[in-house]
Amino acid sequence: MPATTAPPADIRPTDFLGIDQLLSDEERDIRDTVRAFVRERVVPHVGDWFEEARIPLELPGELGRLGVLGMHLEGYGCAGATATAYGLACMELEAGDSGVRSLVSVQGSLAMYAIHRWGSEEQKQEWLPRMASGDAIGCFGLTEPDAGSDPGAMRTRARRDGDDWILHGQKMWITNGSIADVAVVWARTDEGVRGFLVPKGTKGFSTQDIHRKLSLRASVTSELLLDDVRLPAGALLPEATSLRGPLSCLNEARYGIVWGAAGAARACFEAALEYSKERIAFGRPIAATQLQQQKLASMALEVNRATLLALHLGRMKDAGRLRPEHVSMGKLGNVNAALDVARTARQVLGANGVTLEYPVIRHMNNLESVVTYEGTADIHALVVGGALTGIQAFR
Ligand code: TGC
Ligand code: FAD
Fold it and tell me: How many CB atoms lie within 10 A of CB 323?
């Protein structure tokens, strides 16, 4: 048997660099509260939800009581927490499952943020308190079958008809679509891209769930069909008048993903570390082999690096210095890192790594959606490349 030594007293394998010490007491409290919720309410069940391709409908209410829905927004029943605290919550939620973090991101950073930032006072009063408590669910319809990375190519159109608007088109890949009480729908108009609030049950508005996903299965993904939907003037988000409206919401959600990806990576690393110490091959724990230690060291490095990057962006956001290009670098770096960690961890688990008995392949598959939605890795590389060179390479 190989010689063993106790780890140095001031090194914790699950927080190698002591990043915990960079958080305030209040931030640690929020993080620990969300972590306890995830351990009790998500981790024991999420393998089944993933297998059954469902998310329990009680969960939004529970997340509302936990205080994480729109937690970084001010007023209207929202907690008004710091960006860093919100990020820590996203990290813990995604350590459970990307689908649960997605539910919270779409609700708080996309649908609620759109109303909070671009809506009228009446719209805020009507929707935000109910959305913060989880009594009403929102979704965010930007992507279309032929307009994903390039939302400016959208075909969904809204035209004025007297005081009303008539909305026609189709949205695709919409998280929470069929369970949403209100859809924030972006459409082309004669006045530029505008946003509309479409309540569930509005005549001409229907949804169709997308099935057979092998990623983000504990999350509802739908198509939204808008067949000459008549909406009153009060459904228009009055303050958003161009693509800047929806893109500003994406900054918020992408910021949460920077943290969330670090959480998914951490969960995979911890599963691999534990497994490697217990699994015996050739008469010794696989953790005693140089090849597995190299994998563990590289995963620990990526998890610590991703967490530090997320925390740095959080501090920048709280100081009002965070630009969309910074968020792009964070999303690009942390999701790619999380994918690397998940794939490495899956190998450490051998055959057990391909089952839902362990969290790793679930995270690995989920991260294929995370690297695609909210701007693909290519798109974020081009945003960073544009900022570095001053040359836009999209077109
Ligand atoms: P471009 O001409 O550059 O800009 C149009 C207007 O938007 C402004 N702008 C931004 N504003 C705020 N934040 C940003 N990140 C912004 N980027 C651009 C820009 O200043 C301009 O404003 P104005 O006032 O002059 O009109 O736009 P473009 O058509 O060239 O596109 C740029 C590009 C490619 C970066 C953008 O289209 C993009 O980000 N594409 C990716 C699309 C995307 O991320 N879709 C996500 C859909 S939602 C989703 O995936 C939810 S996943 C659910 C979950 O989290 O679970
Ligand atoms: P495309 O844009 O067709 O891209 C295909 C490939 O081409 C990608 O690899 C891309 O990087 C590459 N590419 C595109 N343009 C360029 C370029 N200029 N240079 C180099 N390469 C390029 N959308 C919403 O609006 N709301 C939601 O709630 C939502 N939830 C989602 C949930 C899930 C599970 C998934 C998978 C997607 C969701 N989306 C949602 C959609 C998501 O935002 C889009 O899938 C994403 O923006 C990419 O668009 P696309 O799939 O059409 O890919």
Answer: 12
